[in-house]
C-alpha cells in the first residue's frame, strides 16, 4: 500500500515538474517574441557604413516600436537631435549630441520633456552612449533607466531610422528593443516595406513591432 501511494506521489510530482517546465518554456517563448530575448550575450551589429552623424540632426517622430514598459502610457513621442557644441560640428569632430525626448501621457494628457546627451563611439560610428541630464554623479546617471548604448542600425536620413538597444546579464541572457523613427508620423507603404526588409536582413522580426500612439497629437509639444 505504501509503495502504491509513494508511486502515485512520484508520478504526480513528475507531471507537476513537466507542467512547470512547459509553462516556463512557453513564457520564455512569449518573452522572446515580444522582447527579442535569448540566451547568451547581445548580438553584435557593425556600425552603419559611411554613417554621417550630422545628417540625423533635427526632429524625428516615433512611428513603431517593440514592447517597452516605460512607453505603455505614452504616445506622440518625438526625438530632436542637436549638436551640443556647434563649434565641434563645424570642425566635423566626434561631437556630442543633445537629445530632447518629448512625449504625451495618454492617461493625463500632460506633456513630458527629458533631456539627454549622446556621444558616438568614434567619428563615423552609429553606436552611441546615451545618458540623461541629471544632477546625479555620472556613475549613477549611467545606471538610470533608459541610459546605455544605442545603435542606429540603418537610416536613409530623409525618411526613417532604425534605433536598437540591447542589455544582457553577462552570458546568461539578453533582451533588446527596437524603435522605428520617421521624419513624419507615418510611412507610405514603400518606405515601411523597405524598413521591414532591412529588419529581416538583421534577423530582427518586424512582427515584434507595434504602432506608436500618434492619434490626435499636438502639432507642437
Automatic annotation (TrEMBL):
User: What is the protein name given in its UniProt record?
Assistant: Lipocalin/cytosolic fatty-acid binding domain-containing protein
Q: Where is the Lipocalin/cytosolic fatty-acid binding domain?
A: 128-215
Alphabetical list of Gene3D superfamilies matching this protein: 2.40.128.20
Q: Which residues form the signal peptide?
A: none
Q: What are its GO cellular component terms? A: cytoplasm
Domain of life of the organism encoding this protein: Eukaryota
Q: What is the lineage of its organism?
A: Eukaryota, Metazoa, Ecdysozoa, Arthropoda, Hexapoda
Q: Where are the transmembrane segments?
A: none
Q: Which biological process terms from the Gene Ontology are attached to this UniProt entry? A: lipid metabolic process; response to reactive oxygen species
Amino acid at each position: 500500500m505504501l509503495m502504491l501511494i509513494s508511486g502515485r506521489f512520484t508520478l504526480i510530482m513528475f507531471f507537476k515538474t513537466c507542467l512547470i517546465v512547459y509553462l516556463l518554456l512557453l513564457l520564455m517563448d512569449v518573452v522572446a517574441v515580444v522582447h527579442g530575448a535569448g540566451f547568451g550575450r547581445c548580438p553584435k551589429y557593425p556600425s552603419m557604413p559611411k554613417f554621417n552623424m550630422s545628417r540625423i540632426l533635427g526632429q524625428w517622430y516615433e512611428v513603431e516600436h517593440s514592447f517597452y514598459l516605460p512607453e505603455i502610457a505614452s504616445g506622440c513621442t518625438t526625438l530632436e537631435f542637436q549638436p551640443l557644441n556647434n563649434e565641434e560640428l563645424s570642425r566635423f569632430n566626434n561631437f556630442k549630441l543633445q537629445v530632447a525626448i518629448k512625449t504625451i501621457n495618454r492617461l493625463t494628457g500632460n506633456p513630458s520633456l527629458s533631456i539627454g546627451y549622446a556621444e558616438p563611439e568614434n567619428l563615423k560610428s552609429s553606436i552611441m552612449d546615451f545618458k540623461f541630464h541629471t544632477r546625479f554623479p555620472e556613475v549613477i546617471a549611467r545606471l538610470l533607466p533608459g541610459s546605455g548604448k544605442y545603435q542606429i542600425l540603418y537610416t536613409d536620413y530623409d525618411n526613417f531610422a532604425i534605433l536598437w538597444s540591447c542589455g544582457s546579464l553577462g552570458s546568461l541572457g539578453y533582451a533588446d528593443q527596437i524603435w522605428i523613427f520617421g521624419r513624419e508620423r507615418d510611412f507610405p507603404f514603400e518606405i515601411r516595406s523597405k524598413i521591414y526588409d532591412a529588419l529581416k536582413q538583421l534577423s530582427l522580426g518586424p512582427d515584434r513591432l507595434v504602432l506608436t500612439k500618434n492619434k490626435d497629437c499636438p502639432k507642437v509639444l
